[in-house]
């Protein structure tokens, strides 16, 4: 069960922005330069902080490293995705390895997805 959003979520999101993973940093460098669609990074919503989020498209992009395949993470991700879907937000999960392989292609696909 997700926790309720607290006042500490904005500072938590700010901290996560400073500690972004390499794939997230590579994507952000590309996404912040484009002016087609507004995509936020490490955006707090409800009990979660989303890696990337387009409010206009109601879509979030989660960059998943290998940790998302371990322990209870798959189940936690399912609960998170369900909660976000109940809020009308589509979740698109992208493998970190795909971002590292071709960040420009992934960024372009993210922008296209926001426009559909």
Walk me through what this model shows.
It is a single chain. The chain is α+β, with helices and mostly antiparallel strands. Helices cover 46% and strands 22% of the residues. A four-stranded mixed β-sheet has the order 1-2-3-4, sandwiched between helices. β3, α3 and β4 (90-95) form a beta-alpha-beta unit. The radius of gyration is 14 Å and the shape is globular. Residues 1-8 have low confidence and may be disordered. This is DUF559 domain-containing protein.
Mean pLDDT: 85
Radius of gyration: 14 Å
CATH architectural category: 3-Layer(aba) Sandwich
Q: What is the name of the CATH class? A: Alpha Beta
- The span between the termini is 31 Å
CATH superfamily: VSR Endonuclease
Number of extended strands: 4
Helix content: 40-55%
Report the sheet with the most strands, covering strand number, pairing sense and barrel closure.
4 strands, mixed
The helix-strand sequence is HHEEEHEHH
The domain tally reads: 1
Fill in the CATH topology. Answer: Endonuclease, Chain A
Structural class of the secondary structure composition?
A: alpha+beta
Strand order of the largest sheet: 1-2-3-4
SS field, number of helical segments: 5
Could you say which overall geometry the principal axes of the C-alpha atoms support? globular
Strand proportion: 15-25%
Protein name: DUF559 domain-containing protein
InterPro entries: DUF559, Endonuclease_DUF559_bact, Restrct_endonuc-II-like
